[in-house]
Amino acid sequence: MLTSFPSLLKIGELSHQSGVTVKTIRYYENLGLLTAIERSDGNFRLFSSDMVQRLRFIKRLQSLGLSLVEIQDCLQINDSGELPCEEIATKLRQHIEEINRRIDELMQLRQELSNTLSNWSDSPRAMLGTICPNLGS
């Protein structure tokens, strides 16, 4: 009942206060990232006001590149009464390593593109069985 938890929020209020769409809140609830405490007499989901901060936390970790599965791991640690800071730091370090790997790959691709264009002819001679002579295939 509403009288036992005066700070409960309907999903629309939670959306407004957190800046997260109702659709996304429902999706997160289905994934188990957050839960409604109860339902109102009209069968509306009711959420603790703590869920505003939880949603902001989820969005912050997403902005840092963590997946919802990774975020769920962090939330489970928090929900067990522990601070997830060490887990978050580990995941962020892993993301830095992945970004560095992707940067290396992109730099190699940039070099390959530059090399290809340095020998490019705007008017190549047509060759039988070759689609673009500049590419050699």
CATH structural fold name of the largest domain:
Multidrug-efflux Transporter Regulator, Chain: A, Domain 2
CATH architecture of the largest domain: Orthogonal Bundle
Characterize the largest beta sheet: strand count, sense, and whether it forms a barrel.
Answer: 3 strands, antiparallel
| Unreliable segments of 5+ consecutive residues | none
Please count the beta strands (DSSP E, at least 2 residues each): 3
Strand order of the largest sheet: 1-3-2
Characterize the overall form: elongated
| Proportion of beta-strand residues | 5-15%
Q: What is the C-level CATH assignment of the largest domain?
A: Mainly Alpha
Tell me the span between the first and last alpha carbons: 72 Å
Give the ordered list of helices and strands. EHHEEHHH
Mean pLDDT: 91
Report Rg.
Answer: 25 Å
Number of domains: 2
Q: Helix/strand/pairing class, anyone?
A: mainly alpha
The helical percent reads: 55-70%
Number of H- or I-type helical stretches: 5
Protein name: Heavy metal-responsive transcriptional regulator
Coiled coil: 89-123
Domain HTH merR-type: 8-77
Keywords: Coiled coil, DNA-binding, Repressor, Transcription, Transcription regulation
Structural overview:
InterPro entries: DNA-bd_dom_put_sf (IPR009061), MerR-type_HTH_dom (IPR000551), MerR_fam (IPR047057), Tscrpt_reg_MerR_DNA-bd (IPR015358). This is Heavy metal-responsive transcriptional regulator. It comes from Romeriopsis navalis LEGE 11480. Keywords: Coiled coil, DNA-binding, Repressor, Transcription, Transcription regulation. Pfam families: MerR, MerR-DNA-bind. The protein has a three-stranded antiparallel sheet. Helix 1 crosses helix 3 and helix 4 packs antiparallel against helix 5. The longest helix has 34 residues. By secondary structure, the protein is mostly helical. The mean pLDDT is 91. The protein folds into two domains: 63 residues, Multidrug-efflux Transporter Regulator, Chain: A, Domain 2, CATH 1.10.1660.10; 47 residues. The protein has five helices and three strands; from the N terminus they run βααββααα.
